[in-house]
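fold-stage: in
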Amino acid sequence: MRKILIPITVVAFFVSCEKGLNYAKRFPYDKGYVLVNQNGDTVRLSDFRGKVVVAGYIYTHCPDICPFITNNMKKIQRLVNADPALKDTVIFLSITFDPRRDSPEVLREYARLYRVDTSNWVFLTGERRVIDSLMKDLGIVVEVGPMSLDVRVDTLEDGRVVADTVYRYEILHTDRIHVVTPDGRIFSYFKGSEADPNEVMKTIKEAIK
């Protein structure tokens, strides 16, 4: 099998993550957002109304901030799930803002690699336009950096030639975890990569009241 790598450069620009930053006051349950979970099932954002939501915003190719967000959410989840009265009341959401690469299969593998307890933790992706609109409503700034496309050309044993495109880029984004009340009010937010799990736990208990 012969492989040829053809680089194609696409120009993009980084801008400050703080540019255009806003602080949403309500989780947009009423906007009718339709998403897809890590199992490929179609879900509505409003399906999570009625629970306290702990939401983090990630992309699976993230080299720095997102692993810290995910690990912090794991610590928070362990605290929540250790309290039987809380476990069925709280749902964790990891919403990707990189649907081009983060398919349900990729999110499922990401959850497996991080050994996430998916009993009350859902990973969500969706159509590009839906994700872009959702991030805007939530005040999550997302800026794609310089992009390259690697076109992998393989010659199979039977002589057929197949090509596959691999997108390579990083994303500048807001570092945030939201805590949302059962009726959809954004009760508080934290810097996701630095959040103190015990402080978030206190906030979750307050959000239930």
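fold-stage: in (second)
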Amino acid sequence: MGRHTDDDRLGMLREYVAEHGLIPSYAAMGRLLGFRSKAGVARFVDRMVARGMLRKLPGGRLAPTAAFFARPIVGHSPAGFPSPADELLEDAITIDDYLVDHPSRTVLVLVSGDSMIGAGIHDGDYLVVE
């Protein structure tokens, strides 16, 4: 297995939180994310705090921030025409947990055009795409 990036590990952590509803302990996070030491976990946590994904609570506990739950917006999709969602990140917004089964594989796509109005999908709407 290759080296994981911070974004890979953040995706794994998002999946864990989606399933369990909480941030794991440092020891559990180390096992989950493939760290060999608690120091490695601590450095990762510090980077996530610096990025605004996690915050430290009194007593050393960790909590996810709103940015932790944000889904990337990766462009727009002309209504009625397939378009790959592989464009550059434009922005991020937070959506309700019940819309996302796999957080690390879910993005938002902005609809442009009106060919899908009959289906209730309008120009300017966002599609949730896994």
